[in-house]
Write a structure and sequence with these properties.
Elements: H1 2-13, H2 36-63, H3 65-71, H4 74-97, H5 104-130, H6 136-142, H7 148-155, H8 163-183, H9 190-226, H10 236-253, E1 257-264, H11 267-274, H12 276-291, E2 299-304, E3 307-313, H13 317-329, E4 343-349, H14 358-374, E5 379-381, E6 389-390
Parallel strand pairs: 4-5
Antiparallel strand pairs: 1-3, 1-4, 2-3, 5-6
Helix pairs in contact: 2-4, 2-5, 3-4, 4-5, 5-8, 7-9, 8-9, 11-12
Length: about 400
Amino acid sequence: MTTLFVALSKRLSSLLPSELHASEMPQLLLPQRHSLLLSQRRAMMIINRVRLFAFLFAVLTPLWSIVDFMVFSYPLWTGLAMFRLLACGAFASVLFMYRPSGRLTDAYLAIAILFAIPTLFYIASHTLLRGHELTQFSAAVATGYAFLPFVLMAGLAIFPLTLLENLLLATLLLIAQGVAGYMNWSTLNWPSFAGGFWLLILIAGVTALASMSQLAFMIALVRQAIRDPLTGILSRGSGEEILDLQWNLVDRSNGTLALAFIDLDHFKSINDTYGHEAGDRTLRNFTETLTAKLRSSDSLLRWGGEEFLLLMPNTDLAQANRALQRIVSNGLGQRPDGKPLTASIGLAERCHDRIRTPQELLERADQRMYLAKSNGRNQVVCSDSPETQQATDAPALTASV
């Protein structure tokens, strides 16, 4: 059984982009495993495609009233036209009221509203059509209303969704189809209904694969765009975005946000003495060592050369200082000559330092990092006073940076 499961997993993974790492496969299943940047960009894409979908429905939904007018009798076509105008107004509201915000909750609400509108229209139109006697021709046109769930199910394919998100939305559409069948219980053609329901399930499976394939490409592209190619951690470009995102999150709740500016001590001497390849290995070893000691909510960024930022949300200054002291006391790695790698670290925190902008937070941490360097390196400075705390007992090196 285990061998069969492994073989099936490999077969399924072969259908996805080769750029996707094995460790990223769980991100196709649950949105909770997504990084903050991926969630933001996915939310923006979902809302943009919701608005595109809403625009098409807002234009096409009322146009079909012309067909209803030509086919159905007076009381019926006016009722359908009223439903269509209500649906058109709802789609227009989604189009004009929603703007990409980068928040996944807004994206979920937008896509829920988008699919709720035609689903309610589908149930309402079925209720109206059921109460009228139809001719052979008008009955044939009325069957076109039954295809709406299939259109909606296929429409899921345009969104980069996880498997869980696909299952939830597809289940809602299947429930709507079941409700429509229940409402026509007495006159229902069961073989046709069962065949249509099975076809809807098959379409749901295909759209789930299409959505997950889109998400897989997005995961790979976002990783390539935001990661530093040498160390694999977040790059400076994405770091600025992450800082703004984290700041906005804690600013809404008046929460704490600590930022550590880390500069590796005497790193230039490594490149000068042992070569750039040795320097690259030292940087990779440092990031791997530090990353293993961080929480999942923390973000480590390569700011440039041997400079790094560490973002610690929901962490006050004292907590951040204790965490950094513990991390560096356990070691940050080794230099090529076997001596311990040390760093000068400046620490600032949003609430404690009464900082008003993310740029000011970064500048305060940067200033304290330079204060740590001027006071002898190998220490964490968390105030603007000259008093500092030694991070480790390792002696400061004398080579210049």
